[in-house]
Design brief:
Layout (H helix, E strand, L loop, with lengths): L5 E2 L9 E11 L18 E10 L2 E7 L7 H4 L3 E3 L4 E4 L1 E3 L11 H8 L4 H6 L4 H10 L2 H17 L2 E7 L6 H17 L4 E8 L10 H18 L5 E6 L6 H13 L3 E6 L7 H7 L4 E4 L5 H12 L7 E4 L1 H6 L7 H6 L4 E3 L13 H12 L3 H8 L1 H5 L18 E4 L7 H4 L6 E6 L2 E3 L2
Parallel strand pairs: 2-5, 2-6, 7-8, 8-9, 9-10, 10-11, 11-12, 12-13, 13-14
Antiparallel strand pairs: 1-17, 2-3, 3-4, 6-15, 15-16, 16-17
Helix pairs in contact: 5-6, 6-7, 7-8, 13-14
The chain binds N-(iminomethyl)-L-glutamic acid and fe (iii) ion.
Fe (iii) ion (FE) binds next to loops.
Length: 437
């Protein structure tokens, strides 16, 4: 039995209106039509001493307590006194691998002891280790494990999520993962997007037959995925020893023919043409970007600032770089060049076994020198754009879902990343309902 983690605040059957009053600061009140780029990221609209009016889980109005009509208090059936809390839109985590089986802390310890990534891979570790574990569990068990993680991240303020396949690496395994994501979509009231990442690595049986596996992705996996509507996007891990830029192009073109837009893993470890290919493919987002040369930064910024150019998002995953002891992404350079930057967790068992977006935001400010305003925009509205759901979430705007973070008493917004590691979230509301726990 899957636990229900969201409850209605007062009248289960009648809840249609909720009024939140006495908000110290209502953060990110805007209706952006485009991802925020460059300098725009530093502007974070805030209303002091505010209220929010919610109808059937959707934001119906907001403003200052001064402008608030007192009679509303009498017509609402759910009055929430924020008692001076800050209220922010929930985090929009646009890159995760939240569906996986088991964990890999043994590899983590082996790395501390000095084993290299290559040595761990050579003995069947890494993605192949997770693939073995995934193919051993039932779909039901996989769902239970994923649901637990989803509950956990929603309590930490995540209100929308992208989830990838990529640990199946076989027709049955990939479909199993995508069916679990579909069930998560159906059971949860978080907006969830599914990405098909069959091209995460080559399974053992295809180590010497790359074309064979690519054919399997294109001829055996994609048609079923399209028929069962199991994915919104397609992804490829474009790295040395994994998939080349040309292979990525072939796979993405096949995905595009089924309507799956690319969201791509590029430049995590190497620069092998993934950026050029991703821009050509008009990827919704190019993700990771730890290893970027000057030319690639120019390419990302030029393409994104040209009128007719690439309109995609650079999605940075700082906790993955942190966990792998790599240089963090050049966020400052990308923003200063005019790029649209989003922040995401990369929640996965190998390189970021945490889906805590509060830490992602803090790390971005501490180590990548993003301003708190930039990090909050990147983790909310730009994350929503990176999942094509900015019309329903990512900011406080009339008509969007009431997916809200209520903070504990904090003196300012900058206090959130400053006091990293302290849980400053008091409660989380998804679609007008408080998340339990
Ligand atoms: O995004 N690098 C590729 N995929 C994951 C890690 C996968 C794993 O080690 O399980 C990532 O970092
Ligand atoms: Fe990833």
């Amino acid at each position: 039995m899957v636990p229900v983690f969201v409850f209605r605040t007062y009248f289960y059957n009648q809840m249609s209106s909720t009024l939140i009053i006495n908000i110290k600061q209502l953060v990110n009140t805007r209706d952006a039509k485009q991802p925020l780029r460059g300098k725009e990221l530093a502007s974070l609209p805030i209303i002091n001493d505010a209220y929010v009016d919610i109808e059937d889980g959707i934001i119906n109005g907001y403003g200052t307590m001064e402008s608030f009509h007192k009679e509303k208090k009498n017509t609402t059936n759910n009055l929430v006194d924020a008692k001076g809390a800050m209220v922010l839109p929930c985090w929009c985590d646009s890159h995760s691998h939240l569906v996986y089986a088991g964990s890999r802390e043994d590899e983590f310890v082996d790395k501390i002891r000095g084993l290299s990534y290559a040595e761990i891979n050579a003995r069947g570790g890494g993605i192949l280790n997770s693939s073995k574990k995934l193919n051993e569990v039932s779909e039901d068990e996989l769902f239970v494990q994923a649901w637990k993680r989803l509950e956990e991240v929603s309590r930490l303020g995540t209100g929308a999520l992208e989830i990838k396949s990529g640990y199946g690496l076989s027709v049955e395994g990939e479909l199993k993962m995508l069916r679990v994501i579909k069930k998560l979509k159906q059971k949860s009231n978080l907006p969830i997007k599914a990405t098909f990442l069959g091209a995460h690595t080559y399974p053992q049986a295809f180590k010497e037959n790359h074309q064979g596996y690519i054919d399997m992705i294109i001829n055996d996996m994609l048609p079923v995925i399209a028929k069962e509507k199991l994915a919104d996007y397609i992804d490829v891990f474009c790295e040395k020893g994994f998939f080349s830029a040309e292979e990525m192009e072939t796979i993405c073109k096949a995905g595009l023919s089924y309507g799956l837009k690319p969201k791509l893993h590029v430049n995590q470890l190497n620069s092998i043409g993934g950026i050029e290919a991703g821009i050509k493919l008009n990827a919704v987002s190019l993700d990771h970007l730890e290893v970027l040369n000057e030319k690639e930064i120019q390419l990302l910024s030029k393409s994104s600032t040209q009128e007719s150019g690439w309109n995609g998002i650079c999605t940075l995953l700082p906790t993955a770089a942190f966990f792998l002891r790599m240089h963090l992404q050049p966020a400052r350079q990308l923003i200063d060049c005019g790029c649209a930057v989003a922040l995401a967790s990369d929640f996965n068992p190998g390189s970021s076994p945490s889906g805590n977006m509060n830490f992602v935001v803090a790390l971005s400010c501490i180590q990548m020198k993003m301003l708190p305003e930039e990090a909050i925009n990147a983790a909310t509205i730009n994350g929503a754009f990176a999942m094509d759901i900015a019309n329903e979430t990512g900011s406080i705007s009339v008509g969007k879902k009431a997916n809200l973070i209520f903070t504990k008493p904090v003196p300012s917004i900058a206090f959130l990343p400053y006091c990293f590691g302290t849980n400053l979230i008091d409660k989380v509301m998804i679609g007008g309902e408080f998340v339990e726990g």
